[in-house]
Amino acid sequence: MVDSQPNSENNMVNLYNSRLKDSNIDENINNAHQKLDQWREECHKKIEELYQKKLEELNSYINQLKPEYEEKKTRVQRNISQLNDQQNIDLRQTTIHSIEQDLNDIEQTSLQIHIRPLHINDNYIYIEKEFDFRKFSSNFSKFFYVEESSSAIASNEQYLLMHQYPYLCLIDQDSKLIKQNFWPNGWIRDMCWSKTLSCFIIITDNNIYFVGTNLQYSSPLEEDIKQFWFSCTCSDEFLYLSTCEWGSSIYQLSLSSSIDFIHQWKPPLTCENYEGINDIKYNNEKLALMIKDPKENKKRMELKIAKTFLTIWSLELSIGSNIRLFTCCPINFNEWLVIDGTNSRIYQITKDGTFKNNIHYNSVPYRANLFNSNILAISAEYDLSLHQIQN
Following DSSP, what letter does each residue of 178-235 receive, concatenated? Predict the structure, then answer.
């Protein structure tokens, strides 16, 4: 019998050498510098565009103002020269009055430009570092819910979308409510952002809606699949939807010019027939599943390869019969936050599926979203809080 152990070890050594050769910190540094330089160029371009716009506005006003100024100046000079030759007292008084009036107008003619200093917030540029609960700012913004509000949240690089019954609301990075629009389409199960479609996707019990950053929404997507939906997430290519049932399935839809059904993942690839999926999140070609086992009152997180649904790792997280939400969100360096409403805790999980840290949250947390890498939005039982993450 031939011993295959040396060959296996040789393959492993070759694999390690290949991975080491492919890793290039200098390339990452260069990419970071290029991104920062690009930001500077874009800011300079915006300042130049604003300057040119205001210069045109100023010159247009000057072209209107100067002829009137010159006309009055000429009239004053003419009236002054005529003043000594005028013998009639009434005529002299009329001329003097005209001179005074024109001189007053000339002296009051001014070009005032009011300029506000350009304040650039240091948070406009955030260097992504290791996530650390200790770097939460003590001050945070809060938006209160009414009972009918959904806890679902989603974000892109500019805005965070929330539901504050009866409105959809857009919040910017300065924690300001900048838009809201009435939402009449029923309970919101979940929402996510599609970079490919440049819009938010909202799911209700049976329907899928596309919502622009102006908060205008489309009619429900007319798809052949009729299911009760529970959660959703997006990659660049696909929309993933989990079903609201024991033995949950996950549907995969394309995000091309037409939204087409691609695949359905079923138990036992998704979960066991008696289990349910509380949440799904996509990140870096991986799909995280939050799974509840009602028989043992256990909950776990599984990370799967999105293309094949092969399990990379599985982590048991908490025990409890409470039916509160059990969700997750991706954070820096391919790590994860797990939001455990049953025990009011938020766990930090490494990319390899091990516990790293956790905190007890001061209210019952339902969902979290890392908004533009430096704001952690936590949607809790009664409110949404935006926590700044300090560098």
Answer: EEEEE--S----EEEEETTTTEEEEE-SS-EEEE-TT--BPPPP--S----EEEEEE-
pTM over 0.90: no
Domain coordinates of the chain in residue numbers?
35-108, 130-389
Q: 297 is written with which tokens?
A: 């009152």
CATH code that applies to domain 130-389: 2.120.10.30
- The tokens for 223 are 């798809």
What is the spatial distance between Cα 335 and Cα 329, in angstroms, rounded to a whole number?
A: 9
CA distance 286 to 390: 28
Instruction: Write out pLDDT tens, residues 109-166.
Output: 767 777 878 777 666 666 666 778 777 766 678 999 998 999 999 999 899 999 999 9
Residue closest to 363 by CA, chosen among 42, 140, 181: 140
End-to-end CA distance of the chain: 59
* C-alpha distance from residue 63 to each of 67, 107, 114, 128, 140 (Å): 7, 18, 19, 50, 50
